[in-house]
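Researcher: Please generate the 3D structure of the following complex. Treat every line as part of one assembly.
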Amino acid sequence: MGNTWGVLQHDRFALAGVCLYALFIAVAMAAPLLSSFDPQQTIMQGDQLMSNQPPGGTFLLGTTNVGRDIFTQLVYGARPALTVGFVAAFFVALIGTVVGIVAGFYGGWVDAVLMRLADVAFGIPFLPLVIVLVAFLGPSLWNIVLTMALLLWKDTARVVRAQVLTLRERGFVEAARVLGSSPRRLMLVHIAPNVLPIALLYGSLAVGWAILTEAAVSFLGFGDPMRISWGYMLQDAYISQALSSGQYNWFVPPGICIMLVVMAGYFISRGYEELLFPRLRRQ
Amino acid sequence: MKRSSTRWIAQRLAQMLLVLWVIATILFLIFRLMPGNPLVAYIDPTFTMEQQRALIHEFGLDLPLWQQYLIFLKASATGDLGVSFFYRTSVSQLVWQMLPNTLILTLGAVIIAFVLGTISGAFLAWKRATAVESVGIPVALALRAAPEFWVGMILLAVFSFTFSWFPSSGTADAGAAYTSLWQQLTSPAFLRHLTLPLVTLVVYLQGLPLLLMRSNMLDVMEEEFVVMARMKGLPERRILLRHAARNALLPVVTAFALVVGYSLGGDVVVENVFSWPGLGRLLVKAVAAKDYPLAQGAFLLIAAVAILMNLAADLVYTWLDPRVSYAKR
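Model: Done. Output below.
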């Protein structure tokens, strides 16, 4: 388990992933420094609304059809993306890990109930359900996070549970139990640290899923109208006919950003996958 | 050793019905408890209280919740999914009409993605530790990381608007209609309309079979029987095709139906980009318009398709690999 940091040193891709994350986090935090405009601000120069300006000069990536600066939106857009990504991933990993540990440790009917629950969720198409739930709960970033946390934990839980089942029989757990450790102590101190790499693996995958889901939900018009996210930018471009007017400067950059952040997650998860399952097939 | 397969099939069917029932119940609760007056979508505010009450009564919204639920269950079981608020026609009819378009797009995309992905995956495995691999893998990952609707937007912008090679929306040119399913499937206009959304979905879906096939091939190639074949002096290509690929293929086949299940999500989004008249687009429009019966019906059908596909996957897998014991479940 002590290899958590070692992975980063050995796998170039995982390192690249971490660097990308660091880059986007830096951009998100430094947004006001990178751009003097506000993402929602419609920009006037004198009497004229600066709409549909081509890239160049003051407007690095040009402006939208209502005169907002695209580069500003792009830079500020990192904030909701990373927020949704990391928070959702955290909860997915947390819930999945807890469920997996409890199910694997106690076994019996607890295990059966929890896994049945996971099975029922299996086969329900994810995005349609997110759409329906988000439409019900209202278009806010946190509702999206909540929905994803509710639905995505089962993969993590399954794998963690399998790991717990093997750990349970291992010497050191047996020894601790014989010495009288309480179940809770066993789970927290002995088992949990050993499933941490799995949690990290699925956590980093979940960051990508979360960002892609938020983008899709925003694109369909069910996103948070108060936050300019990359998905929102793409929706805005689409309904403002940016496609037919060839404004590639508007709709290409947000997609590239999404792609890079999600790829970073994949790279990192591949690094941990090598660590955990050196020759095992991914399902 | 085969266990009682009929019993197993019956079990899976029962499980499928259970899941559908759970989904239907959740949907019912969601839509009935949703804030906001559902009738606001089409009730003119100038309607009198009389007329509004009459409409509410007509849709059964004045009954207690549990009664509405029982009515809903009975109706759904008999295939009656209610009447759309917006279109004022039977929901079953509307969703049934849209189903073929979604199936054609989704199944077509998954099939093509699997064929292409499997071949590419095997190819990348063959080219282990070469420049091809170090470029190929990041590219495959990049395509999986890009949002499908964004890829669709780019394809749409480039090939439909900038180059005018393909139409930009729908399944038929404006004003045209298809007389039958067969005619639709074989008409070149339909195929032209189908191309861009299909390519978009394929680009997104190919990543999974590709990576899976590659990883399986790499495992299989290190196994003893392959080493044996090599020692026997068999040509590399024959080893690849006859021995390695066949064994690597099995998990990929299982993944097929699972991918159909999750591709329905991607399909929803692609249908919206290309204004493809399928279930996905219907669902989004219905939810946006707070047309509950229609949204419910569309979602139920999407879920049913996904679950059926999972069942099909299990059946195919057990048929292909008789070593699988049901006891393992």
